[in-house]
Here is the input.
Amino acid sequence: MADNPPFLKLSCSVQKYAWGKLGSSSEVARLASFENPEFLVDEKVPYAELWMGTHPSGPSTISSPHQLAGQLLSNWLICNTWALGEKTSVYSNGQLPFLLKVLSVNKALSIQAHPNKAHAEILHRIRPDLYPDPNHKPELGIALGHFEGFCGFRPFSEIQGFLLAVPELCGAIKGHKEEEDPVKGVVQLHNEANEETKKKALKAVFSALMNSPVVQSRSQLQSLVERVRSGNHPGVPLMEKALLLRLYDQYPGDIGCYAVFFLNYLCLQEGQAIFLAANEPHAYLYGDMVECMACSDNVVRAGLTPKYVDKDTLCQMLTYNMKSAQENLFVSAVHPLCPYVQVYEPPVTDFGVHRIIIPVSGEHFTLPVIPGPSTMVVICGVLQMECCGCCGVIAQRNSHISASQQKCSIYQLYGECHGVPSILQFTVGGHWTGDLLVQFAFVYLLYFYYFVNTLYFICELYNISFLT
Here is the structure.
């Protein structure tokens, strides 16, 4: 262990899903080509996601040191669990318990939700071909620029308003029995009704829509689109009109187009975030995003996708919580001890995120003791990493890791150094060339919480990426 460098350079997986941005317009393609000079960008190919971690659907491999080149990071960790730190290794069965992605979205992803831990285990046991992981998938998405998406159900009054104003929406909805009228159950409900009654009514009408006969839902959707395109769209505000037509052009006749009347539409700006808890409906629509999650690829879909749609499972599992668009924004806070750190702490025990903005001044920035692994993406500038032992003891493992404006490097850092938790100290270089407007190094820190014997331990498993 003493002869090992304090980091491993990684080569990470690129997912070429159809909804990704094409060619060099994709942030994913840009990062992948910077990180790997042999990666050739095809302008006709969609580059959707860059995966950094050990998930088997997109595992990272080691590219240096040369004696380890070509090995899967997951295989190396199995044989070197010390690198995770003792607590991490025990909790996560010798693998990274989190996954970091960069997404470049060109057209809408599916209307979807992710199961909680118990439900994920059941789904995996019953249909492992569709649900490959016995794990939940809470997600935190942080926008790298303008980003659009659906997140959570609208307030009840807004859904009521659309059911009253859009006859084609009502025409697409049928109850399971002739005497049932789920639309009436929503529109006739007083706003003073309790929340559980509203949720029950919303579940009935949304489930009826999702189970509407295909011929009926498509006919009503086509009529609605034709009416809106003709300029005759009372009851459909301009924003919903534009969204409806965009989704219909991307997925003609798809039941998911009706989501514009049920789900909140959010426009995020750089640094703004959304948290996606278990059983909450959402869909990404456009833009680039850093996404942190528990290590899982379980997705339950209900529309806007050519993939398998499990509408019954989705309708049963949703919470039917209703909030405004503003309430679905995830609020971060400045760290009380460091003005460089923006803290994103979602209401789960799996992870949190620090967005660290270091001024380009050549000064040192020291992270606290971190007894867990990290994944670092260096986009530009010069970074010196010093790996130290606890109590300020220097562990004689200093290294330079850097990337010019033209290159990107991805590294896996160890969770322990000489058997003690690592302290990481960074120095950011202050020289860049060209017309680079960004004057900061952007750092994303993903860390991990868990409980042992009712005591609160912090095991900070984190991903760090310098993003411009």
Observations:
- The longest strand covers residues 282-294.
- The chain has a mean pLDDT of 78.
- The radius of gyration is 24 Å.
- The chain has eleven helices and 29 strands.
